[in-house]
Amino acid sequence: MAAITTAEASSGRVPGAGDAGTVVGIDLGGSKILGGVADLSGRLLADDEEPTRHGPDAPFLDQIAAMVDRLHERAGRDRTLLSGVVVGVPGTVSPETGLVALSPNLALPADEPVGALIARRVGCPVEVLNDVAAAAYGEAMRGGGDGRGLIAFAAFGTGVGLGLVLDGRILHGARGRAGEIAYLPIGADPHEAAPASASGLFEDRVGSAAIRARYGADAPSVAVLFDRAAAGDARAAAVLDDVARDAATGLAAVVALLDPDALVLGGSIGVRPEFAGRVGLHMNRLLPFEVDLRTSALGRAAGMLGAVHAAAETARADAALLAGRQP
């Protein structure tokens, strides 16, 4: 089970909101699924985590449905009162078709919307968001902020992505591709390198696979590399500093273009203070102004809590609309 702190579980509650019914938020990743069930005020009641199942016919779809049932059992809530589910997925979501694309780390159905496939299994409306956008929304609405201003959330882990929230609203872009910074054209000759890149030139330099490749054939996990650097391993420290330097190059472009109120780093790599510190130092050399650079307040739960908050807001809005139509 995910370790969710009391502050994470209770933040974002809307005073006066009713507690009848439930909503579920799911953070679907290539390595794990993290889910949470909440009442309609957004108060987290229970959470769960398990490794993502891969294989033919997208077995994670049934896995999500089973998790929805299990979350209600753990919370002691009536599963039939589920109002809606929001799922964050590692890819772009078309606002027109609901189809998911650009998902190199998880094989998602390409011929039918993931939301529709999950809705058939759980029996309620399902909304699908980009996972980093969901995390950005969690930070903006539940991470200590009040939802105002422009929040840019950059996730560094297996891959890299960016989520944008402006005054409490996620910015998806015209085709759902806002924040796909994995494809930033960096490097000495991006025109030559881009056609051979499967995941994007920026991700090729700052993703976990790239970090291990920089270290060499004997590279351990990225977590172990951080431990080695902290213990004085000069080789590991140099690799991580080079990655932070490249990360700062991409993020400086984001800041120069968008001028966000805050730039939040998350993901398994981005949330590390030592990485964020190095990124900040390198950004200071690139930009002639200060940047409000922070690490995620919600940590690994940001995506799930953002999905929970979005689901609760939708459920409350639907309930208010229904109440307004009644005589």
From TrEMBL:
Listed InterPro entries: ATPase_NBD, ROK
Extent of the signal sequence: none
Keyword set, alphabetical order: Kinase, Transferase
Source organism, top-level taxon: Bacteria
Entries under Pfam families matching the protein: ROK
GO molecular function: kinase activity
Family indicated by similarity: Belongs to the ROK (NagC/XylR) family.
Stated name of the protein: Glucokinase
Source species of the chain: Oharaeibacter diazotrophicus
